Amino acid sequence: MIEFHADDYGLFPAQSRRILSCRQNGVLNGTSLMPNSPCLAECLELLRPWASGMHLTIHLNLMEGKSLSPSGALPLLTDTEGVFAVSFLTLLLAPLSPKREEYRRQLKEELRAQIRAVRPFLTEMGAPLRLDGHAHWHMLPIVFDALMDVIREDELPVRYIRMPAEPLSLYARHLGHIFPFHPINLVKTALLRLLCRRNRRRYRRELSGMEQALFLGVLFSGGFTLEKFRLLLPDAVRLAEKRGWHLELLAHPGAVYEPEDIRALTNRDDVAFLTSPARRKEAEAFLNLKEENEDE
After folding, report:
1. How many domains, in total, are found in the chain?
2. Among the four residues 80, 167, 211, 253, which has the most C-beta atoms within 10 Å?
3. For residue 134, what are the contacts with CB-CB under 8 A and spacing of at least 6?
4. 193 near 221, Cβ under 8 Å?
5. Is there a cis peptide before residue 180, judged by omega within 30 degrees of 0?
6. What is the pLDDT of residues 127-149, one digit of tens each?
7. What's the alpha-carbon Rg for the chain, to the nearest Å?
C-alpha cells in the first residue's frame, strides 16, 4: 500500500484547499492535521467530504503558532503570549538540562491537549489514531519520551507513529540522478535515522504492536518533484513489500500565499518553506502522478 501524504493540513483555509485539490484531482490519500491551528475547525469541515479512506494523522506541533495550553503554562516552550519559542537544539539538549523533568512535564501537557483536540474528528471519521510531528520534532528524545508517557497514561490506541528513518541504500542506488537536494537535508536525514534508532530501541515493546512504514520525504524535503517520484517509487515499493510494511511518501503541497496568512505565521522557517514555489511543484507531482496512472 502506498500512502501519498501531505503534512500541515489545517493551517489556513486557502492552504488546506490546495492540499485537498491533490486529494480531489491527484493521488493524495493521507494528510496530517495541525492540532493547534485557530482555523482547524473550519478546515476539518472542508476535509469531511473527502476524509473517507484517507490516512489521517495528528501533526504534533511545537514550533508554529500558539500552544493549546493556557498562556504562561509552558514557560519552557512558549513566550508570555503562548507562542511557541523553543528551538530544535534546545529540545535536543533538554535531557542534559537540570530542568529536564519540567520540560517533560510541559511537553506532556501540550501533547495531550493536541491529541485531544483532533481525536474526536478521527473517531467520527472512523479513522485510527495516528501521530507524527511538525518538522519531525516528535523524534527528539525528550519529546518522544513525553509522547510515550501520554500514550501509556491515557491508554491511547495508537495505530501508527511516523518513524522518519529513510532508506539510504535506496538513494545510493540512484545517486547520480537524485540531485539537486539541499545539503542540510542530508544532515537531517542522518540525524533522524539516529533518533529513530534510539526511540525504537527504547520502546521496542510498545512500537512492535503498531503499523510500520517505509518513509521517504526528508532528503527531498521541499523538492520532491514528479521526476524524483518516478525514479524512486518502483524501488521503494519493492523494498516496502520486502519488509512487509506500507510505503509513506511525504510532500508539502499546501502553499501559503495569502498575505494575511503569511503574516499570521510565527516561525520564520515555516514562512520561507510554506511560501516557496517548491510547494506548487510538489502539488503538481501529486496531480500528474494520477494523470499518468490513468493514462496507462
Report:
1. 1
2. 253
3. 7, 8, 34, 59, 60, 61, 62, 63, 64
4. no
5. yes
6. 999 999 999 999 999 999 999 99
7. 18
SS (H, E, C) the chain: CEEEEEEEECCCHHHHHHHHHHHHHCCCCEEEECCCCCCHHHHHHHHHHHCCCCEEEEEECCCCCECCCCCCCCCCCECCCCEECCCHHHHHHHHHCCCHHHHHHHHHHHHHHHHHHHHHHHHHCCCCEEEEEHHHHHHCHHHHHHHHHHHHHCCCCEEEECCCCCCHHHHHHCCCCCCCCCHHHHHHHHHHHHHHHHHHHHCHHHHHCCCCEEEECCCCCCCCCHHHHHHHHHHHHHHHHHHCCEEEEEECCCCCCCHHHHHHCCCHHHHHHHCCCHHHHHHHHHHHHHHHHHHC
C-alpha span between 232 and 268 (Å, rounded): 31
Range of the domain at 44: 2-295
Q: Is pTM beyond 0.85 here?
A: yes
**pLDDT > 90 fraction of the chain, expressed in percent and rounded:** 83
> 69 — alpha (psi -120 to 50), left (phi > 0) or beta?
beta
Task: Look at the alpha carbons of 115, 269, 267, 228 in this order and tell me if their dihedral is positive or negative.
Answer: negative
Q: Residue 189 belongs to a domain with what CATH number?
A: 3.20.20.370
| pLDDT per residue as tens digits for the range 150-160 | 999 999 999 99
Closest among 107, 36, 23 to 66, alpha carbons compared: 36
